[in-house]
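User: Run a structure prediction on this.
Assistant: Running it now.
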Amino acid sequence: MRLFQWTLPALLVGLAGCASAPPPASAPASAPTPARPGVATADCAALQSVGYPGLRITAVEAVAAGSLKLPGIASPMPAHCVVKGRLNERRSPVDGKDYAIGFEMRLPAQWNGRFFYQANGGLDGFVTPAYGNILGGGPLSNGLLKGFAVLSSDAGHAFERSNPVIGAAVFGRDPQARLDYGYNAVAQLTPMARALIAAHYGRGPDKAYLVGTSNGGRHGLVAAARDSGGYDGILATTPGYRLPLAAIAQVWGAQQFAAVARTKRADGVPDLETSLTPAEMATVARAVLARCDALDGLRDGLVQDLAACQKAFDPQRDLPLCPAPATEGADCLAAARRDALATVLRGPSLYSGLAWDPGLAGRNWREWKFTNSIGPRDAIALAFVFTTPPMSPEVISGAGTTVPDYALRFDVQRDGAKVHARDSVYTQSAMDFMTPPEPTELRSFVQRGGKLLVAHGSADPVFSVLDTIRWYEGFQRVHGERAADSARLFVVPGMNHSSGGPAPDQFDMVDALVAWVERGQAPEQVVASVRGPGNATPNPEVPADWSPTRTRLLCPWPSVARYRGQGDPEQAASFQCVR
C-alpha cells in the first residue's frame, strides 16, 4: 500500500519548489523573550470610544470575577471586559446583502501580555464567545483563564437564518465574503485587535498567538504561509489546509457508500448510515488492532506507529469476509462493503487517502462520513463557496436538486475542476483563497522565528492525517535539519475530527507553544489523557478495559511513543518517543 498519493498539481508544485532557492536558516533574529504581564489602565466603558478605521463597537460589558463558569473547567473566569463590534461594514454589489467582519474580544483585568486569536471552525458565520479554546477534547482551561486577551470572529459573514439548510454557505455568492472567509478576516482583524489591546492596557501585546482547529487550523496554516498579523506562535489542530479538495473527497466518498446502502431515507436518498453499521465498523477496528496494535511495542488498544500500520494493513487480506449475506454485521463484512470502505480510505486521486486506524469505529467518523458529507457541511460548501461560479440557492432547493442530490451527483473530474476556476467576478479560485500559498515554505514566518505546532487525529474522517503528514514531510524537505526549529507535527492516535474516538484526546498545547516561543523550549513530547469515567467531560468512547485516567505521550513526527518495557502501561512515563 502507498502511504501517500501525489496528484499532478501537487507534483508540479513540488517541482517548482525544487527549482527555487531554499529559504535561509530558520533561526530567530534574537533570543526568546517572555511576555510581560500587565493590568487594564482604563475601565471597560472607555473601549466604546476607541477609534479605528472601519470599526463600529456595538456593545461593551464588564464581567465580574467568578460570575462566569464554563462546563468542564473547574475555575471560574476572571474579571474581564467583553467588546463586540463590526469591522468594514459594506453592501455587496453582487448579492445586495450587508456584510461585515463581526467579532468579540475579551480582555482580562489581569493580563499576561499576550494576544490570542481564536480561529473558529466550519463555515464560520457565528461569533462564538472569545474564551480562547485550547483544543482537544474536554479542555481543562482556556486562553482567557490563562490571562490572554482573546478575539473571536465570524470571518466576515453571518449565518443566514432564513434558510437553515444552506444558510451557512450562501455568503459564497459574494466575492469579498469568500476572501474574508479564506484569509482576509485574520489580516483585517489582527491590527484592530492590537489597537483595542493598546487602548485598554496602555501598550500592545508582547506576543501574539493564533489557535484553531479544523477550518480554524486551516486559518492557522494560511496565516503562517501569508504571515498575516505577524503571529509569534500558531497552534493548528486537525488543519484542513486543502479544504476544497477534502470536501470533494467527502462527497465522492458518500457516493461510494451510497452504492452499498441497504435502505433509502424517506426522501428517497440512500441512507448512508446503513452502508456500514456500527457493528461492522467495530469489526474493522478489531482487524486493524490485530494487525497493528503491537507494532509500537505494546498491545494497548492504540496504534501509535501509524506509518508502519499503513504498510502492514491490507484490507483485502485482513478484513474478514462473510460467507453469506445472512451473516453480515456480526464478525465479518460483505465483499461489496469491504471494497467500498477500502476505496473510500484509498481516496480520490486529487486528495490523500485516510488512515487505517481503530478510531474508524468512532461516532464522529460516522457523523462526518454518513451525514455531513451529503448535508450541512461539505456539499453546501462546494455548491456556494468552493466552486466558481457558485450555485443559485433557487437551483439547489427544488425537487431532484436538493443538497443530497447535489452531493451524490457531483462529478469529481467535471465539477472538481471548478475549485480551480476564476472569472471576472470571482477573481480568486477556492484553491487561491482557501489554501496556504507555498505551504511547505512559510518563508517570512520561518525567517523571523515564528513557531508552528500542528496536531492531528489519526482517525480524522474528513481532513486526512496522511495529507497533513504529506505537508509536513514536504516542509522537512524544504528546510532540512532546521525544519524542527520552526514547525512540529503531533499525531493523536485514535482521535477523530478534533476530538473524540477511542483516544487520549485531552491535551494542552498552548502552554507548550508559549514555552517554545518565549523560552526556547521546543516540545519534545506532549502528555495527553483519556477522558474516562470521572473526568469533568467524559468521553463515552474510552474502552472499558483502559484506565479512566490513562495518559500517553504524543511525539513529534516521525517519532513513535514506545513502551519502555517496564512500568505502568497506563501512564505516559512508561513510554518514550523513539524514531
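The chain has two domains: 38-241+443-523, 245-430.
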